[in-house]
Amino acid sequence: MIDNGLPEGWELVVGLEVHVELATKTKLFSGSPNRFGDEPNTNIDPVTLGLPGALPVLNQHAVELAMRIGLALNCTVKPSTFHRKNYFYPDLSKAYQITQYDEPLNVDGFLMLPGGVRIGVERAHMEEDTGKSTHFGGAGGRIHGSDYSLIDFNRAGVPLVEIVSHPDVRTAEQARQYVNELRAILVAVGASDAKMEEGSMRCDANVSVRKYGAELGTRCEIKNVNSVRSLGKAIEYEARRQIDVLETGGTIRQETRHWDETDGRTHTLRAKVDANDYRYFLEPDLVMLAPDAEWVERVRAALPVLPAARRTNLAVLTGVDEDSEAIAVVVERGQDTYIEEVKNSGGDAGRALVWVQQSFAEEGNAPRLPAKDLAALTVLERDGKLTATQAKTVLGDMLEAGGGDPAAIAASKGFEALDTSVIEGFVDEGIAAQPDAWAKYCAGEEKAMGALVGTIMKLSKGKADGKVVTAILQQRRGS
Amino acid sequence: MSERLSAADVAKVARMARLNISAADVERYTQQLDGMLDHFADIDNLQLADVQPMTQPFTLVNVLRADVEQPCLDREEVLGAAPAAEQGRFRVPPSGGEDE
Amino acid sequence: MSNFSTATSIAHNVASGARSAASVVEEHLQRIGQREEEVHAFNLVTSAEARKRAADIDARIARGENVGPLAGVPIALKDNMCTRGVPTTCSSKILEGWKPPYNATVVDKLFAAGAVFVGKTNLDEFAMGSSTENSAFGPTRNPLDTSRVPGGSSGGSAAAVAAGFAAVSLGSDTGGSIRQPAALCGVVGVKPTYGLVSRYGLVAFASSLDQIGPFSHSVADAALLTEVIAGHDPMDSTSIPKPAPSLVSVLGRGVEGMRIGRVADLPEGADADVLARLDAAFVALEKAGATIVDVKLPSLSYALTAYYLIAPAEASSNLARYDGVRYGNRVAANDMNNMYADTRAAGFGDEVKRRIMLGTYALSAGYYDAYYGKALKVRRLISNDFAAAYANADVILTPTSPTVAFPFGAKTDDPLTMYLCDIFTIPTNLAGHPAMSVPFGTGQANMPVGVQILAPTLGEEAMFKVAAVLESAA
């Protein structure tokens, strides 16, 4: 049984619906720009505004990006169609959204979470985004009780792919991992910048709970989650809420609930008079989208190595655990190929991973520092010519100068790794200065070693290699 | 009258279609639409199980456009034709709660 | 044929310098001045723009330029085609005053061909109707007898040509809206193959059925205009990716050896005078060397049902955008849904509301399969019937309209009676095939009768050959 943080006996069941804006130049069905942050209503054309007589024509690049997403998620690309989803809302210009309904482009895929959990992907289909409503007056810009709204159609018609998972997620942590991994994939394949803060990636969660072994419970759809952190919090809150309801004899009503970041709760929306009836029907203004095998294979062949495989490769290269933070961070930044170059230049990949994780946050996927220079630094370190502290100082200079010979820089700073016999002398002095700590350490109190090492390092003015000091102390204690 | 659909059905459909019609009009439309559906019952007895629906007359596949920017409409011209606009945007009354 | 000049002769004379475009326009504007008040063919007459364009064409011809195949030809456009900066109303209050910021593809093609645009013509609101009585701006009258309707929904475009207000015009045909008014006004009307003419900028009624086509005095003019407006348009995903057909060149070729289909199981409902003219048409074609063959179209009688479920369903969605947010008229209200419902109640006429409700119902949860879904299957049956019939026939002849032009108010009490006007024209829209109406003599009250020629997909050549023979035999 998995630890889901819920009261004993309760299982959490979550399915995720992720909307992602595609990184095209233009809209899904027309040639106005797909660009975030422009002046309101400047990226508009007859199709975007739903002017009488306007007709949609499908953006080929959007299809390619949607296929990349599907293939990266191990989906099958199938002949697909577009439907109209009819409903009235001021930011929906035609009063219908064009979306893929019963014949989506990508079906039956999966995504592996770090740690080997497999989350099924039911479908990844194409659809258009709506415009943006801003509510004014009333209770602080909320929909309810506002005085009026203003509509900007710049976002209307922006291509989206909606990725629908199976209800395979069992913990809030898995939900976070799923979204993080999905985002890494979307960025890697160039399909989207996938920024939740800017809304180019939006995540809804279908949450239900059940007793282990029971039938699936009634689910609630949680919307308005604006970060991966909030997603986890919203799922945890909602699961507890449902359990409270069920344990006090209540029933869960299937509904859409909004996550409120300020009070950390989900809230139900006012019940509707009529249930939504979207009157889906095939969009008569568009024709079937049926990529042939040749096109699908061309897209597949052009896919880059995906984050999971890159993490495995980097783990093998560096000897570091695949699920470690360092591996995740460096792959996400796209700096794994750089570490490969360091290794190919004769460097130590493990040490390079540490430095890149710590010091290359601003560098992007093509660091300015030549890989051979970092390689030389890691060799000095590995060979005991520089301590970690000294290496960090040297690296700082190298990064600032955009390169350099680490040995020369170290020499100019007077960094020389101390001879073991010299370090032995500092160890003697240190033990003499901290007799109590030494006694405790000898009695098996490992914490006491910190004080000893600190004193010895200070005596050596930081020139002693901490690892060597530790080894000498252990040796003298006889363990 | 065959009563294929009721006044309540018509009132619901009018609500769905966002048409504010009077009670008298609901009655009249109910009668007219019911008469039509009665006439349209001529297809009820056709054997259609194996017939593929036809949604478009001419079958085309993969009609696509290149991802190339085209000129946009002039915002002032467009907003000038709108019933209400301010701050470069279209102005509408509050939504009253129904949200997508 | 009437005594008015044809587009073909006008274009020839203007291009050769025998006549000025300006004088042609003045002649037509003069006729508009004389009879428009009585006929009400137009929602808007664009005299100033017409004069300016005619002067421009004359200037270009004086410079030796080739101004195109419609040089100086006055043309009227149904008021559901977008014209940049010129009001486009669909004869609906909801769009009254709206000026599109763009041109329909056909409008650009007409301008590029040298046509002179004289005005926007009246129609049944959003093209829903068969008499032009459903216009929010008052009905159009039949120029041949102003106590009678011109047909619809493109009644204004048919009347504009019949009255000599324009040499040719464009209409749109969703279930017969070009052919039926053409028949009732005694002019030629063509509905091309679905996808032959771009729908970009045509205000949608029923997207899978709508098609733009010409009205004219002569078959040759209709062929010329079809050539100009046809052809692939990348702005319309349903546009057929082929070049425009060559039609004028086939007109003299006759019908020798062609097989003309007579529908053995033609649905009942046509008046005797109309059927008499149809028989005469068969005789004329046989005399010209064609063979008459019997074809069966057993599903034809279900076409009306399929059409009146499919077209309103698509329309209910297409007309949902008229919500008072971005353009058109709004009725103010304190919240969004009341604003929508009041705006749409005030903006749409009775027939439009009826069809929106019918279509909404046909698509709604629990009824989709029984109505819309079933109608799509019937549509397939009709298409299959035609495919079988065209294995034995090159074209099929039927009446265009079951009656000649009827008096105002004759069919307004029961919507279904009006729907039956389209019984012979609807099937081709469902199949997506081309069809045209050619005047072929007169019936009751000396009113014109049209004969309808149906052809398979992209069968315009055969259709026009037959039309030309009927025209000369009429």
Write the layout of secondary structure elements.
The complex is a heterotrimer of chains A (479), B (100) and C (474).
Chain A: E1 10-21, E2 58-59, H1 60-72, E3 76-77, E4 83-86, E5 96-99, E6 106-112, E7 118-128, E8 132-136, E9 148-152, E10 159-165, H2 172-188, E11 201-211, E12 220-225, H3 228-247, E13 255-260, E14 265-268, E15 281-282, H4 293-301, H5 307-318, H6 325-332, H7 336-344, H8 349-359, H9 371-382, H10 388-401, H11 406-412, H12 420-433, H13 435-442, H14 448-459, H15 466-477
Parallel strand pairs in A: 12-13
Antiparallel strand pairs in A: 1-10, 1-11, 3-6, 4-5, 4-15, 6-7, 7-10, 8-9, 11-12, 13-14
Helix pairs in contact in A: 2-3, 5-6, 5-7, 6-8, 7-8, 7-9, 9-10, 12-14, 12-15, 13-14, 14-15
Chain B: H1 7-16, H2 23-40, E1 64-65, H3 75-80, E2 85-86, E3 89-92
Helix pairs in contact in B: 1-2
Chain C: H1 7-16, H2 21-39, E1 42-45, H3 47-62, E2 74-78, H4 105-112, E3 116-121, H5 155-162, E4 168-172, H6 179-185, E5 188-191, E6 212-216, H7 219-229, E7 259-263, H8 272-287, E8 291-295, H9 303-318, H10 336-347, H11 350-363, H12 369-389, E9 395-399, H13 415-419, H14 426-431, E10 435-442, E11 448-454, H15 460-473
Helix pairs in contact in C: 2-3, 9-11, 9-12
Structure, described:
The complex is a heterotrimer of chains A (479), B (100) and C (474). With 479 residues, chain A is of the alpha+beta class. Chain A folds into 3 domains: 10-300, no CATH class; 307-412, no CATH class; 420-477, Arc Repressor Mutant, subunit A (Orthogonal Bundle). Helix content of chain A is 37%, strand content 18%. Chain A is built from 15 helices and 15 strands. In chain A, the strands form 3 sheets. Chain A has a 9-stranded mixed sheet. In chain A, strands 5-4-15 form a 3-stranded antiparallel sheet, with no helix packed on it. In chain A, strand 6 and strand 7 form a beta hairpin. Chain A is elongated. The relative contact order of chain A is 0.10. In chain B, a hairpin with a 2-residue loop joins strand 2 and strand 3. Chain B is built from 3 helices and 3 strands; from the N terminus they run ααβαββ. Chain B has helices spanning 7-16, 23-40, 75-80; strands spanning 64-65, 85-86, 89-92. With 100 residues, chain B is mainly α. The radius of gyration of chain B is 23 Å and the shape is flat. Chain B has a domain at 7-42. An 11-stranded mixed sheet of chain C has the order 1-3-2-4-6-5-10-11-9-7-8, with helices on both faces. The mean pLDDT of chain C is 97. Chain C has a domain at 7-251: Amidase signature (AS) enzymes (Alpha-Beta Complex). Chain C starts with 6 loop residues before the first helix and ends with a helix. Chain C has 474 residues and is an alpha/beta fold. In chain C, helix 2 packs antiparallel against helix 3 (47-62) and helix 9 (303-318) crosses helix 11 (350-363). Chain C is globular. Chains in contact: A-B, A-C, B-C. Chains B and C meet through helix 1 and helix 2 of B and helix 9, helix 10, helix 11, helix 12 and helix 13 of C.
